[in-house]
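Title: Prediction job returns without error message
Component: structure pipeline
Severity: low
Priority: P3
Assignee: unassigned

Description:
Job completed but the reporter wants confirmation the result is attached to the right record. Sequence as submitted:
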Amino acid sequence: MIRFGNRKSGRLACAAVLSVGMILLQACATIPTFSPRVMEDLDETFDVEAWWKAPNSMVGRKVELGGQLVQGVVKNGETFLVVLQLPIVDQLIYESFETHKPMKQYGIHYRATIDPKWLAAGNHIMVVGATLQTKTVLVSGTQQTIPFVNAECLHVWKSAGTAPPSLPLDTAAKFERLEQATYCTSGY
């Protein structure tokens, strides 16, 4: 047992230890990518596999998706992105755990402009928004029909040329080192 002279100094020492412990706990905690307000009404039961099969039957669902940017275009004050879907684990984006499954693409429509430095192919992205009807887009010179999300908020990591982590171990530091930005519609 540790003794600290008198009761008052013992209480002060305990309070100091508890304060340091709380600070350390906060430092280790995962910081949310988006504010709780953005995450309100998120469809926690959204099945991305079912969305790929019948995207037009799942219009208007508020979802959170992650991925790697394939291409991005700013046109008439709006941003259109094509993203290779990757899973989100603990608010970070990972390579597919099922490497035998082909990864699929989806589109993001954001009703504002994004600085072009964030639109490089290979950057990692998270989006929260409502699912839309499929649209036909030109991807790497080929027309494709893909499902779309109307973005409320986007978070982009400037990670072009950096492979995403393949396992959720010790990877938060990798993403923290990358330059990143969040874009949200004016309501957020």
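Comment from assignee: result matches the submitted record. Confidence is low (pLDDT under 50) at residues 12-30, 96-100.
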